[in-house]
Design a protein that fits this description.
The complex is a heterodimer of chains A (about 725) and B (about 170). Chain A is α+β, with helices and mostly antiparallel strands and about 725 residues long. Chain A folds into 4 domains: about 280 residues, Transferase(Phosphotransferase) domain 1 (Transferase(Phosphotransferase), domain 1), CATH 1.10.510.10; about 170 residues, no CATH class; about 130 residues, no CATH class; about 60 residues. Helices cover about 50% and strands about 10% of the residues of chain A. The N and C termini of chain A lie far apart (about 135 Å). Chain B is mainly alpha-helical and about 170 residues long. Chain B is about 85% helix and about 0% strand. Chain B has 7 helices and no strands. Classes of the chains: A alpha+beta (about 725), B mainly alpha (about 170). Chains A and B meet through helix 30 and helix 31 of A and helix 4, helix 6 and helix 7 of B.
């Protein structure tokens, strides 16, 4: 089959606006590592033919939209999804395309449902979505079907010099349609989080109608080049940028407008870290567009754009333009003129690693990237606190840092004394607006879910991510914030709740539970289901049933991910099942598992699960052995194959864990034990006293003989005497 | 002192009997000779052999005593009886039967009881085998339960010993 699997997508002449690294190529390599891990974790049968249950499945979304893997539409690709032509079975002439998502990337299913239902103007319309089997990946993954735009990406047109956007074109052509979309999002307390120059399309061939591309195939902001993110989110790991708000979208819109007008990325040749340093020390607008003339035409064009861009790209979200400000500007009224972004500067420099620093935010950024040196500098060099006091003229910060140093000295052996903790805390003090930065995890509090999801999907730093909660790192950060107190309080409560969840290490709790609790649309990451895409409880048993065909059935069909997934997604009380599953007795674990799966099958009214029945049936040995009676065990063993063939887990459960049968077995066993014991006691008495007993018997015999002799002689004498007398 | 007392009384009784009926005493003295010998050799407290031999020996002697008492109460008859081979044989044979009874009957009874116990053992083991066939090794289970209890007790004991007292 001449399929075009997910190969490289050539992007030439993009004028520095490359997509971030998390594209198919890079993630595929991580993904393949992860799948190797999977194989180590759950031994699968070696040949790929065993995944036969998917082989005949066609890539059709909800039985209607056929995604043609031989017709890639690379110009519609997104960094985390590949585009292919879609054929609508009911209306074949309808122009559609489908995005095949990365299997390990959490998608925004809640937004998909909302967009499908609402059909918001200013963005590509989502037609439908569903997990499908994708043969080139040999596994299930999420597919999203969109209306295909007739035009191309706007930025590609600009790069190809087929289009030039002037400052006059921007308000009506670009901003107006997008403002409608932003207002719609703001009204619903949502954020688009995918506004960028490379994600804008012409919906029509005449290049009049502009729409935004997809924003659901990855975590919010994940696909952004960091230039499109507000400074605090730009400093985050892509997966930790968080859901954000429309204020973040407005920042992205500002950058997008600027880049569309100048036609290239001003940070093209600047590495990511230097971009951040520049933005921190100069403010985002000045750093990105400060030295650029917008338009080579009249001076007024420059002036027309500078004010809105300054307003939209303000680094302080509260001073940033709102949708209302943009509307005022579009209407031609005088908009609010945003003050320049505040940049704090020290009076004297601080030297760290032979570099001079005047800006505490930049220093905090570099501290977080050089934890060991930073910790040494903070703890051993009094110059740092002196600089805070005199250079920065901020004795509050100096006192707070002093407190951290003293606490570290007092708790040298505990976490509070570790380099990572000290640096995290000091960075928070220096730059409280920056993201939480701990052991290489840089994230906003609303991006913690993404951090954990990606760490779990790629299996590289999952356990390490738990330390964020264990050591209350988000609480540290939240304590340093001085605005929106009620929001902060809610977040604190949430993180404390998650920490409590984490502290329980039983199955159905711990880090996996936290993962599924905060990522309600994450697929189950169990290695057993790695070839599937289980999002809902309805998908779970059928997927596990299919896994029974290629998994090692000597192992139990469960792991921490499965149990945590069920705990968070199954709407029924499963405490009793979990207690059994967490038991130390093997038979109780199997019974707990069977009862849980039986309960799912029964409550969700699911059809027969032949492979799963057979899989669990093969593991019932310890359960059968838990019955004392040999005859009961034999009877159960005899009946199991029949029930396995029915594929009914509730019936299988009823056979092996019948309450009346267990009670009868217990009582009869107790009676048998008593019988055996009394027989043993009698045997012991007979065997132990044998010699003594023999002597006693002999003595009794002698006594008897004497008695008999005397009686006989007396009778004999009496008879003789009587006869003589008579 | 008590023994001397007994001997004195026996001498008085024999002397009295000899004065009252010398033929009876003579006949008894000769006829119950095996009982006397048994008495002499039997060192047990119960004197079962003496009683057994003596009672049957008496049966052998008693018909001749009745003859003296009811027919001819004279020393001649007594002498004639004790010098008669048949009479003596009868008297001593009856003592021999007593001895034989005492020697051979108790072991027979003992063997019989042993046989009954053996059969009971077989029956009990059969019951146990059937129980084990249905329920598994019940003995170990019981032993385990006992040993667990013992261990627990020991543990409690050791803990009690290890716990420092207020003193």
């Amino acid at each position: 089959m001449a399929e075009q699997p997910l190969g490289k997508n050539e992007r030439t002449g993009n004028r520095g606006l490359t997509e971030p690294k998390q594209d198919w190529e890079s993630v595929e390599s991580v993904d393949s590592d992860a799948s190797n891990d999977d194989r180590n974790f759950v031994p699968l049968t070696s040949d790929s033919d065993s995944f036969g249950n998917f082989a005949n499945e066609e890539p059709i979304v909800r039985g209607r939209y056929f995604i043609d893997s031989t017709s890639p539409l690379s110009h519609l690709d997104s960094p985390t999804a590949r585009a292919y032509k879609v054929e609508d079975k009911k209306n074949p002439t309808r122009p559609l395309f489908g995005l095949i998502c990365l299997p390990d990337m959490p998608t925004q299913i809640n937004n998909m449902a909302y967009y499908k239902k609402s059909q918001i103007p200013g963005m590509l319309s989502i037609i439908d979505w569903a997990p499908i089997y994708w043969a080139p990946l040999n596994q299930r993954t999420m597919a999203v079907v969109y209306n295909q735009p007739y035009g191309n990406k706007i930025f590609d047109q600009i790069v190809a010099e087929k289009l030039t956007l002037s400052g006059y074109d921007i308000p009506n052509k670009i901003v107006k349609p997008l403002l409608l979309l932003l207002e719609e999002h703001e009204a619903n307390n949502l954020a688009y989080r995918a506004i960028s120059a490379r994600n804008l399309y012409f919906l029509d061939e005449k290049m009049n109608q502009v729409v935004l591309g997809e924003n659901v195939t990855a975590l919010p902001g994940f696909n952004h080049n960091s230039i499109f993110e507000p400074i605090e989110r730009a400093m985050c790991n892509p997966e930790g940028r968080g859901t954000g708000s429309v204020a973040d979208d407005i920042f992205s819109l500002g950058v997008t407008i600027g880049i569309l007008v100048i036609g290239y990325n001003p940070f093209e040749n600047v590495n990511e870290e230097d971009q951040i340093r520049k933005r921190l020390s100069q403010g985002s607008f000045n750093a990105i567009f400060g030295s650029i003339q917008f338009g080579n035409a009249a001076q007024e064009i420059t002036l027309t754009l500078v004010t809105p861009l300054r307003g939209m790209m303000h680094d302080d979200p509260l001073s940033r333009w709102s949708c209302e400000d943009i509307r005022i500007w579009l209407n031609g009224d005088r908009p609010t003129i945003a003050s320049a972004s505040k940049v704090s500067q020290a009076r004297s420099p601080f030297i760290f690693q032979n570099k001079t620093y005047l800006n505490p935010q930049v220093l905090a950024f570099d501290f977080s990237n050089n934890t060991k040196d930073a910790s040494r500098c903070i703890q051993n060099d009094e110059a740092f606190t002196l600089w805070l006091k005199r250079g920065l003229n901020n004795s509050d910060k100096a006192d707070a840092v002093d407190e951290v140093i003293q606490s570290a000295a007092f708790n040298k052996t505990s976490v509070q004394g570790s380099d990572d903790y000290i640096v995290t805390k000091v960075c928070g003090i220096l730059d409280p607006d920056a993201p939480i930065r701990f052991k290489g995890f840089n994230f906003m509090p609303d991006g913690f879910a993404g951090i954990l999801a990606i760490a779990a999907s790629r299996k590289n730093r999952f356990a390490l991510a738990s330390e964020i909660l264990t050591h209350d790192i988000p609480i540290l950060w939240l304590d340093l914030q001085d605005n929106e107190e009620s929001k902060i309080k809610t977040m604190k409560t949430r993180f404390l709740k998650l920490k409590k969840m984490l502290s329980n290490n039983k199955l159905g709790a711990g880090l996996e539970r936290v993962l599924y609790e905060i990522n309600p649309h994450l697929r189950c990451l169990s290695p057993y289901l790695s070839k599937d895409y289980v999002l809902l409880m309805q998908h779970f048993l059928p997927a596990l049933n299919a896994a029974g065909n290629y998994s090692d059935t000597q192992l139990k069909p469960m792991d921490r991910h499965i149990i945590a997934f069920i705990r968070t997604r199954f709407d029924f009380d499963i405490e009793l099942h979990l207690n059994a599953i967490n038991s130390h007795a093997e038979d109780k674990v199997i019974i707990g598992l069977l009862s849980l799966y039986a309960s799912i099958q029964w409550r969700l009214e699911q059809p027969e699960m032949l492979s799963l029945s057979s899989w669990i049936g093969g593991l019932l040995g310890p359960v059968i052995e838990s019955y004392r009676s040999f005859y009961t065990r034999e009877r159960i063993k005899k009946n199991i194959p029949q029930l396995v063939r029915l594929g009914s887990l509730p019936e299988l459960f009823d056979l092996v864990d019948n309450e009346a049968l267990r009670l009868k077995d217990k009582e009869e066993y107790f009676a048998a034990k008593i019988d055996w014991q009394s027989a043993q006691e009698e045997i012991n008495t007979i065997e132990d006293d044998s010699e003594e007993h023999a002597k006693k018997v002999e003595n009794n015999g002698k006594q008897s003989v004497v008695t008999v002799s005397i009686i006989l002689s007396l009778i004999f004498v009496t008879i003789l005497f009587t006869l003589k007398i008579l | 002192m008590a023994m001397i007392n007994d001997i004195v009384w026996v001498i008085i009784l024999i002397t009295g009997c000899t004065i009252l009926s010398p033929p009876t005493v003579l006949l008894l003295a000769v006829g119950l000779l095996p009982t006397g010998i048994a008495y002499f050799f039997d060192k047990s407290d119960e004197k079962y052999p003496v009683l057994c031999i003596g009672s049957l020996n008496l049966c052998g002697v008693f018909p001749y005593i009745l003859e003296i008492w009811f027919e001819d109460h004279s020393l001649n008859v007594a002498l004639h009886t004790i010098s008669d081979f048949l009479s003596l044989t009868l008297m001593y044979l009856s003592a021999g039967i007593g001895l034989a009874l005492f020697q051979y009957v108790p072991p027979v009874i003992s063997s019989l009881l042993k046989l009954i116990a053996k059969r009971r053992l077989l029956h009990l083991r059969n019951i146990q085998r059937n129980l084990v066939e249905q329920w598994g090794i019940l003995g170990d289970e019981v032993k385990k339960e006992i040993s667990t209890k013992v261990n627990k007790n020991n543990q409690i004991d050791s803990e009690t010993h290890l716990t420092p007292t207020a003193d």
